[in-house]
Design goal:
two-stranded antiparallel sheet, 2% strand, mainly alpha
Length: 360
């Protein structure tokens, strides 16, 4: 909204032309989302506490987690509020890509909210039945994937790019839809599985979101995309605004979510944030880069898959407990050590992903 206001004012005052630059609006989006999160964080926590929307912990989880019982959850709604409001303020609202990401954000956030609501009202950690939650995610992901495929005007918008290898691309035709569905739903669940310790999921989300923002800017800039050998995707640059909002909103939430957490994001935040990252990666054609930068999310997901498969096939567990962060806790690592080390790993992986901009 502010973008369109300043764009209109630029016809009269040339100084407002500065707001047409994506780089400036991305910075402003990050600062705006950060401000909203910090300003609204305290009141939201008090409101959630008054409603007694406290976290219920797994009885079979680490004993140290039992002290977390009762900590307000569903704080992810604060993150989504900051992202949506900020995007509406600073993005070009004529962009189909921006509206698609906002739709995915709200739809997956609604699924997560329903899951959280059932958990706190039924006083258990089960929530929405897994098959119902998964079906909702698949429905949202399928609609988003089909919409991206249907409106694509250039081959580059549905071509798979292999990082670090020059000119190696894959055209998969209609298979783009199920592949993209897998990325969106997989990313959504991966972030949700990682969200088990104070601040563990949000900081990697911030770092990966920032990395994808750089790719979005390059993909939407015809000259830079050609110079770096990336596919030019018209309108992708506006997604840098969304990524800037993720960074700001995430850092603001981390202020309250850092160990020991005053609030948890819950599924309303985790499912939506993962879906946003997956959708942005699909739109800017960087699914494999997301796989690299989000390596911590991947490890957490794979650990659960291996644990379940091993137990069903052999009756034995691969890890002391899954997801992976619980394994290290049960091995004696203090919670802050697990969190910070996973952050460091993510930082390294994001740098590796960014290196693919030039190394080809």
């Amino acid at each position: 909204m502010l973008y369109h206001l300043f764009d209109w004012l630029a016809a009269e005052v040339s100084g407002f032309n500065a707001f047409r630059y994506i780089t400036l609006r991305t910075v402003l989006a990050a600062l705006t989302a950060l401000g909203i999160s910090l300003a609204a964080g305290g009141p939201v926590i008090r409101y959630l506490t008054a409603l007694r929307l406290g976290q219920h912990v797994r009885l079979d989880g680490p004993q140290s987690h039992h002290v977390k019982a009762g900590t307000p959850t569903m704080g992810g709604a604060l993150i989504l509020l900051a992202i949506v409001v900020t995007t509406l303020l600073w993005a070009d609202l004529r962009s189909f890509k921006v509206w698609l990401v906002l739709a995915v954000t709200l739809a997956t956030g609604l699924i997560g909210w329903l899951d959280d609501y059932l958990k706190v009202t039924h006083r258990n950690s089960k929530g929405l039945k897994s098959r119902h939650k998964f079906l909702g995610q698949v429905l949202v992901g399928a609609v988003a994937a089909f919409a991206i495929f249907a409106v694509a005007k250039l081959p580059a918008e549905t071509t798979y790019i292999v990082p670090f290898i020059k000119d190696l691309t894959l055209q998969v035709g209609w298979l783009f839809v199920p592949f993209s569905l897998l990325v969106i739903v997989g990313s959504s669940n991966a972030v949700n599985l990682t969200d088990g310790l104070d601040g563990l999921a949000i900081m990697p989300t911030v770092m990966v979101g920032g990395g994808l923002g750089i790719f979005a800017y390059v993909a939407g800039h015809q000259v830079m995309a050609r110079y770096l050998g990336l596919p030019y995707v018209p309108g992708a640059g506006e997604l840098a605004i969304v990524c800037g909002a993720i960074v700001g909103a995430g850092l603001g939430f981390l202020w309250f979510n850092t160990y020991p957490a005053q609030v948890f994001m819950g599924d309303v935040g985790a499912l939506a944030l993962g879906a946003i990252l997956g959708t942005v990666a699909v739109l800017i054609r960087q699914e494999l880069v997301l796989f690299i930068m989000g390596g911590v999310f991947v490890m957490e997901t794979v650990s659960v898959m291996l644990q379940v498969a091993s137990f069903k096939l052999t009756g034995k567990r691969v890890f002391a407990m899954a997801p992976l962060h619980h394994h290290f806790e049960l091995k004696g690592w203090p919670e802050p050590r697990v969190i910070v080390r996973f952050w460091i790993i993510t930082f390294i992986l994001v740098l590796v992903g960014l290196a693919s901009l030039k190394i080809r």
